[in-house]
Structure formats: structure tokens, C-alpha cells
Amino acid sequence: MNIRRGLFVWGLFALAASTVLAADALPPEHAADSSGAATASVNFAKDIAPIVFNNCVSCHRPGEVAPFALTDYASVRKHAKEIGDLTASHQMPPWKPEPGFGEFEGVRRLSDPQIDLIQRWIKAGKPEGNPADLPPAPKFPGGWTLGEPDLVVKMPKAYTLRAEGADDYRCFVVPLNLDETRFVTGVEFHAGNPKVVHHALFFLDTTGRGRELEAASKDGGVGYYGAGGPGFQPTGSLGGWAPGVMAEKLPDGVGRVVRAGSDLVIQIHFHPSGKVEQEQSSLAIYFAKKPVDKIFVSYPHGVNKIDIQPGDNHYVINSTFTVPADVQLLGIFPHAHLLCREIKVTAKLPTGETTPLIWIKDWDWNWQGQYLYKQPISIPKGTQITQEFTYDNSTANIHNPNTPPKEVRHGEQTGDEMSLVFYQLMVDRSNALVRLRELLGNRRPLLQRQNQSDDKQQDQSAPKHE
Ligand code: HEC
């Protein structure tokens, strides 16, 4: 289990996202006014379209994750009531981290004046205004949020997933045909059939092992069976995808290494839907256009001793580790399953100063994400990082998959639980540790667990699996 977990962990992530969905500043005449004269002048073309185009259309457009498009007046008008309700309650756009606990890129949160403007537009009878005032519609070439990709690869054939039974794990080998080493600054995953894809990991392979495993697979399906990891030591990773993860580009000067001749091995964790389904996904790849001097690496720290009794509505996992070297933290990706309610990660610097890293108060498995900080955070050697996960295994938890609740332990099935955080670090290309790691086959951990606040809880960060 530990080994499987290690491989899984290694691959899980990297990416993420989120288009630039920053809240737009409002024209001053609206910002100041909360009722009266301006209400009559609120209209779709001038006031509402800019909010919707900048904050909603990345997901609410054909082929994307949201259930309907919000790309024009007619569609926004039709859903106006729910739009008013869900923006007022901050359920849309979805954005989980608590404000003030980590400063993130691409924050998807409407400002109070924007929310108010939507309310006033609805009250005013949803007027269209003058179409000449409409801002240009956002463009997504080929359907990709990040723009025209440099390379798009697709699973060579569709995979047929059985209707019933346990979750399925499958690896698909996709040659990249690169004849030189490249740096990747972003990837965007399009699941062929998002209903059944629990998550996907993008491993790199320069050894040809993935191809051998695929050739040796005798079960008749496309690709090969592979739970946990891809069945070999990956030589790199392009991150992964889970529900809610939006594609995002790394800052200039930072990239993921893809060596010449690498195959991409897409590992998909499937959750059968009750009927036979087909899946054929694609990955868009964006290469660095500027020189890269920092490498993006993702390091996990987690706990795999999880045992939550039925009815326990406050099960807490508290785990602390010490950072053994100075690192620059670019982003963070917390991960848990359905019973988790809250995740909080804090760094205590050697000076005693506390730096909040992330706090998600109402964890929702459907809205996971990699969160990139506005500015990379310098974490000095000796910093203690504490991860606190809280779970609710009572019937009061609407995400509880079991009625009545039953005991839930650590595991990879959707119905199991996890307690895991990926720390996304930026490491100098010339860093001795990076060079050493490359020599050792790319698998040496940089972060070593030094101590653990609770001995009963077993650590599952990368070092255990080496
Ligand atoms: C990151 C992707 C994303 C963004 C951005 C987003 N939505 Fe959604 N929206 C979804 C998804 C997915 C659903 C389906 C429900 C769910 O899974 O939570 C949804 C559902 C909705 C619903 C219907 C809920 C229901 O079932 O009645 C409304 C209304 C809505 N969104 C409005 C908006 C508005 C308005 C914005 C922008 C201000 C927005 N959304 C931004 C992904 C998004």
C-alpha cells in the first residue's frame, strides 16, 4: 500500500489554475450607488456581461464543466434567479480558500458591488441594454481556456468502462514525439467523459516501460491496468486533474521538465456510472516561451492512519513536519475525499512568526484545486508546517456516501478517506539537490519528515516510499 501510495502521490500534481478571473473594478457610478436612480440604468450589455464574461464563462460554456452556458443575454436572463441567489451566497463562482489566509492568484470571488449590481439588474426586470455596449465575448481557441496550445495529445483509442463494480484504474500511453528536452508551463486536461473520471495523473516516461506494460496487457482493453502508480518509476510528471481543477500557467521563468523522447502516461481513476461508458481524453500542452531557470516540483505530505468511526462528527488529523532546506513555495494542493469538512495548513517559521498557507472551511470533493500564491512564499529551513484535517462521518454531512454511516479508513477509493497536501516548490535549476535527484532517477525527496505531532499517525510523505 505504501508503495502504491507513493507513486500515486508522486504523480498527483501540479497544475492548475484558473484563468484570470479576478473581479473587475466597477464603474464608479455603480460602485457608489446602492439603489434609486442608477437602478433604472443597470443593464446586461453594459453592467452584467462584463461580470459574467470575466467570471463565469470559463466554466459556463459549451464543453466545459458547468451544466449550462452563460455566453449571451438570453442564457443569462433565463438563469437570472439562480444566478442572483448563488452569487449572493458566494457559491458561484466556486472558490474555496478563506480570504485573508494565503494570497492566491486567480481568485474567483465576486466583489460586493458586483453582487449588488446583479441583484439590482434582476429587480430592474433584467433589461438587455444596447448590444453595442457589449464587451467582446471571451475567446477560447479550440475550447481551451489557456489559449492556443503548442501541442495537443489525445488517447489513441477510446476506453470502454464497465457499468458497475469497484473503481477502475487504467494507464494510457501517449507518445509525445519530442526530439529535444522542453519546459512546460501549463497543461489543460479535457476528459472525454467527465462523469466517470475521478481524477487523472500525467506521468512522463523515458524508459519505454509504459509501452511494454501496455503491450503485455492481456485483458483486451485499451491501455493497461494500473492502480496507485503507473507500474514503473516515472521520470517526471505534468501534474494531474481532479474535479474543480482549472488549467493555469506557471509564472515566467518556471517550468516542468519534459525530456526528449518522453511518453506521456495518463493514469485515470474511474468511478463506474451504472452504465457502460466510453472515455477518450486529451491534454493540451503549453511550452515555455521564455528562458526557464526554476524547476517546478511537487512534494506530498500526508497521513495514512485514518479510521473514522460511524457517527463521529469531529475527527481531526493533526500532523506537523519540519522543512529541512530553504524552499520557495509556489502553490499548494490539499486533497481529501467526501467526509472531510475542513483543511487548514499553517507554517511556523524559525523566528516564531506564523504564515497562513491555506484554509478551506467547507471542503468539497467536487471543488479541489491547486492554488498558486500571488508571490512565492519563502519557507526557511526549520519551518514547521502543520496540516489540520477535520472529518464528519455523521448523517449531518450531506456528502457522506453511507446511510447509515459506516467506518471509513484511509484508501484510494472514492469512499475511503485521505489526508494529503502537495507542496509545489520552485527549485533553482542549478540546485545541487535537483541535480542529485536527476542522477538518482528523479525520485529523491527534498522534504524530509523530521517529526510528527502525533505518533499514532503514520506519515505517508514521499520519503517513506523511496
Ligand atoms: C470554475 C467553474 C465555474 C465558474 C467559474 C462558475 N461556475 Fe457556475 N457552475 C459550475 C458547475 C460545475 C456547476 C454545477 C453545479 C456544481 O457542480 O456545483 C455550476 C452551477 C451553476 C448554477 C446552477 C446551480 C443549480 O444547479 O441550480 C448557476 C446559477 C451558476 N453556476 C452560476 C454561475 C455564475 C453566475 C458564475 C459567475 C459569476 C459562475 N457560475 C461561475 C462551475 C462554475
Describe what is shown at a glance.
The protein has 466 residues and is of the alpha+beta class. The protein folds into three domains: 28-142, no CATH class; 145-292, Jelly Rolls; 298-428 and 438-465, Jelly Rolls.
List descriptors:
single chain, 466 residues, alpha+beta, Jelly Rolls, 3 domains, eight-stranded mixed sheet, five-stranded antiparallel sheet, 9 helices, 29% strand, globular, disordered C terminus, binds heme C
CATH class of the largest domain, named: Mainly Beta
Number of helices: 9
Bound molecules: heme C
Indicate the radius of gyration in whole angstroms. Answer: 23 Å
N/C terminus separation = 13 Å
Structural class category: alpha+beta
Helical residue percent band: 10-25%
Strand order of the largest sheet: 1-11-4-8-12-21-15-18
User: Could you name the ranges where pLDDT drops below 50 across 5 or more consecutive residues?
Assistant: 1-39, 439-466
Largest sheet: 8 strands, mixed
Rounded average pLDDT: 83
Named at the architecture level, the CATH assignment of the largest domain is Sandwich
Order of helices and strands: HHHHHHHEEEEEHEEEEEEEEEEEEEEEEH
Beta-strand fraction estimate: 25-35%
Oligomer: single chain
- Total domain count: 3
Q: Report the CATH topology name of the largest domain.
A: Jelly Rolls
How many DSSP-defined strands? 21
Q: What overall geometry do the principal axes of the alpha carbons give?
A: globular
